[in-house]
Design brief:
alpha/beta; five-stranded parallel β-sheet; 2 domains; inorganic pyrophosphatase (n-terminal core); globular; 38% helix; Diaminopimelate Epimerase, Chain A, domain 1; homodimer
C-alpha cells in the first residue's frame, strides 16, 4: 500500500496494538510511539505492546503508550519489524494477524496482511511521518519520537541512507520541538564504562582480507568485567565501522554462552545483508545482522566466510 | 551588511584573495572554496591564500584554489576569521585591508572594513550559501565544499547550533552532490593511531566540580609516542564532550613546550566563550578555545579557574 492508502486504512481502525521488534532501537520505538500518538489524536484507542527488551535510552518515548494488562486489540500494526522472528516472544501470539506492517527493510518477509514498504527511506520513521501528515497535525508530541526514529537510524545524518528527504523531514520536526537534548543524549554521550569497553575493543581488534575487514569482539566476560548495562553496549557495533582503511566492520557480541549476535557495517564492496542472510539474518546492504549458535571463534569463522563469499561474487 | 548587500558588494570585485584562519577547519576552508568557485563562475579572478597549516583532511577542497606566487589582489575577503590574531602569519600583511569578513562568531572583533555576520548560523558556510544563491547557480563544485563547511561546524547535525535552516540547506546541497563519501571520511573514519590516542586520553581523564567538568590531555609526548599526524589529532577535543555526567569538557593540547591550546565544549550551565575570553581566546557559547603560555599543569589550573568563575556568575 502507498502512503495515502495506508493513511486511509489506519483511519478506519480502532483499539489498535502496535508491535516493535526485538532489541528495540530508536526507529521501531520512535515510529511506534509517534503513530500511537497520532491515532490517539484522532480519538482512537491505541497502545504499544510492552517490549521486555526496552533500554533506558528509549524507554521514555515508549512509557506513555504501553498497553495495560488485559487490553484486547481489534487491530495489530507492526512498525520496522522485517520478519516474524524479529517479534518479541510476547508478540508471537499476533504473528498471523498483523493487519499492517510499516517498514523500510528490503528483506521484509511479507508476513503481514498488508504492508507499506519503502526501502529508500532511511528509517521507518520517514514513512510514518508521511502517513501521519495525511492523518492529523504533527504536534511536538509526535515530532519528538519521530526525530528519535529518523536520527538514530541514519546515525544522526552520517550514514549513506541519509537523503535530502531525511534532512527536510528533520527540518520540519525541528521547527516543532527542541531536539538539542535528544542529540546530546543519543549521539554525544558515552558512559565511562562504554569508553573503557571501546578502548578494549579497539586494542584487541583483528584484521582480515588484507586489512580491509576488521573484527571487534564483546565477549560476555568483557561485559561482566565492567558490569555493563544494555545501554552501555547499545550501538557499540558502530565502532568497527570507523576504522580507517577498512570497509567492512564486523562486531561479535556474545549474548549468552553459545549465542553470538553478529553485526556487519560495510561499504559498497561488501553486501552486509547478503552475508548475514547466509547465516539466517538480514537487514540493509550497508548494515545487517544475524544470530548464530556456537562459540565466538565459530561465529567469527562463519561470518568471515560469508563476507568472503559475497565479496567474491 | 546583510546577505543582499554583501552579494552586491562581491559582484563589484575582481582579483580577489580569500583568507582562512589558523588551524583551518572544514568551515573556513569549505566556505572559502565555495565562495572562490562562485566568483570564478561569475568570471572573476579569485584565489585562496595558501594556508600553511592545512591538513590532509581539508586539502582536497582548497588545492584547486591556492593563489599562485606573486598574485597581487585588488580585494581581500576573510571567511570565518573572528580576529586578526586568527589569521596565519602569511596573511598578516593584509590585516588592515580586509575589505569584507563573512563570519558567524559573535566574538568577531570587527577588524574588517565591512562585515557580514550572522551569529545564528551554525557555520559561516550557511551565510556563504545564502550569498552565493544571490550571485550564481549553486553547482556541484560549490555544493561539495559548502556541505563540508556546514556539516563539520555542526558536528554533522549533532551540535546544538544545528537549526531547521541547517537541515534545509543540507537537503538542497545533497540534491546537487553525493556526500556519502564525505560523511564517511569526515565523521565515520578514525585512524588506528587516533583510536589508540583516544583510549589513552579516556583512561587518563580527570574530573572536577563534583564530576561535572572533565579534563583530557594531549601532551607532546603522547603525540610523539604514536607518531601522530595533525589529521590524527584533529577534533580530538570533541571526545571530552562525550563523557556521561559532565557538561563541560576541557581538552589541553601541548602545541610545543610552553604553549598549550585549550578547547572547551560545554552545556548551558557553562559559557565556554566567556571562560576562554578570560585567557585571551574566544569562540561560541558551547565551543570555544584559547592558547596559553605555560606548562600543561598551569594551563589546566588557569582554565579550571576561568570555568569556575563563569559558572559562579
Amino acid at each position: 500500500m502507498n502512503i495515502s492508502e495506508t493513511a486511509e486504512f489506519l483511519k478506519a481502525l480502532d483499539h489498535v496494538l502496535i508491535l516493535t521488534h526485538v532489541r528495540p532501537d530508536g526507529d521501531t520505538v520512535g515510529s511506534a510511539a509517534a503513530l500511537c500518538q497520532a491515532l490517539r489524536d484522532l480519538g482512537r484507542e491505541a497502545y504499544l505492546l510492552h517490549n521486555p527488551e526496552i533500554t533506558a535510552t528509549y524507554e521514555p518515548y515508549a512509557t506513555p503508550y504501553w498497553a495495560p494488562e488485559g487490553f484486547t486489540p481489534a487491530h495489530v500494526v507492526a512498525v520496522d519489524v522485517a520478519a516474524i522472528n524479529l517479534l518479541p516472544e510476547c508478540a508471537r501470539i499476533y504473528a498471523d494477524r498483523v493487519d499492517l506492517c510499516i517498514d523500510h527493510h528490503p528483506s521484509n518477509s511479507g508476513y503481514a496482511l498488508r504492508i507499506c514498504l519503502d526501502a529508500s527511506a532511511a528509517a521507518a520513521g520517514e514513512i510514518v511521518y508521511a502517513i501521519i501528515r495525511e492523518l492529523t497535525p504533527v504536534t511536538a508530541a509526535i515530532a519528538l519520537p519521530l526525530y528519535v526514529a529518523i536520527s538514530t537510524d541514519c546515525g544522526c545524518f552520517q550514514y549513506s541512507n541519509t537523503s535530502a528527504r531525511t534532512h527536510r523531514i528533520a527540518a520540519e520536526l525541528m521547527e516543532l520541538v527542541d531536539v538539542s537534548a535528544v542529540n546530546k543524549a543519543l549521539f554525544r554521550t558515552k558512559s565511562r564504562v562504554r569508553l573503557a569497553m571501546e578502548s578494549r575493543m579497539a586494542a584487541d581488534m583483528e584484521f582480515y582480507d588484507n586489512g580491509r575487514v576488521v573484527v571487534m569482539q564483546i565477549p560476555l566476560a568483557l561485559r561482566q568485567e565492567y558490569n555493563a548495562t544494555e545501554a552501555d553496549i547499545e550501538e557499540l557495533s558502530s565502532l568497527a565501522a570507523l576504522v580507517e582503511g577498512t570497509d567492512c566492520g564486523i562486531t561479535l557480541r556474545e549474548l549468552k554462552p553459545g549465542t553470538v549476535k553478529i553485526s556487519v557495517r560495510s561499504g559498497p564492496r561488501v553486501d552486509a545483508c547478503a552475508a548475514c542472510s547466509m547465516l539466517g539474518g538480514g537487514g540493509h546492504r550497508a548494515a545487517a545482522g544475524a544470530n548464530v549458535y556456537g562459540t565466538m571463534a565459530e561465529a567469527k569463522d562463519a561470518i568471515l566466510q560469508a563476507v568472503a563469499h559475497v565479496t567474491e561474487a
